[in-house]
Amino acid sequence: MAPVGDDLIKVEVGVPSGMEGNTYYVTIDSYCYGSIIKRNGEWVRLHINNGELTIDDVQALGERIDEALELKSNERRK
Q1: Residues 1, 9: contact at Cβ < 8 Å?
Q2: What are the sequence ranges of the domains in the chain?
Q3: CA–CA separation, 35 vs 17, rounded Å?
Q4: What integer pLDDT is reported at residue 43 of this predicted model?
Q5: Which residues make Cβ contacts (< 8 Å) with residue 27, sequence separation at least 6?
Q6: What is the rounded CA–CA span in Å between residue 76 and residue 51?
Q7: Which residue, among 63, 64, 12, 69, has the nearest Cα to 35 in the 3D structure?
Q8: What pLDDT is stored for residue 8 in this prediction?
Q9: What is the pLDDT of residue 52?
């Protein structure tokens, strides 16, 4: 859940079926906003419906993905 003003929205990020690498789809309140990918160390929009996600949105989501992947990697090393 993410705060937007006084509201909370449900944000989900996942790997599309059949896709590999650093590509993730973004769903907000059950609506697919598109997909993002990490290229050359930077998060960018791959497919975005109606351009609704800004570059800042993509960077923030990408940072959260990076944090989750790092945490998962650290847990595997234990």
Answers
A1: yes
A2: 2-77
A3: 12
A4: 92
A5: 11, 12, 13, 14, 33
A6: 37
A7: 12
A8: 79
A9: 75
Question: Can you read off the two tokens belonging to residue 19?
Answer: 């896709």
Q: Encode pLDDT of 14-71 as tens digits.
A: 886 666 678 888 888 888 888 899 999 899 988 877 667 888 888 999 998 999 888 9
Query: Residue 54 corresponds to which tokens in the numbers above?
Result: 């800004």
CA proximity to 24, closest of 50, 2, 57: 57
CB 44 within 8 A of CB 37: yes
Is the separation of the CB atoms in 13 and 29 below 8 Å?
A: no
Residue 8 Cα distances to 3, 11, 31, 63, angstroms: 5, 9, 15, 20
Counting every residue written for the chain, the total comes to: 78
For residues 37 and 41, give the distance between their C-alpha atoms in angstroms, rounded to a whole number.
Answer: 10
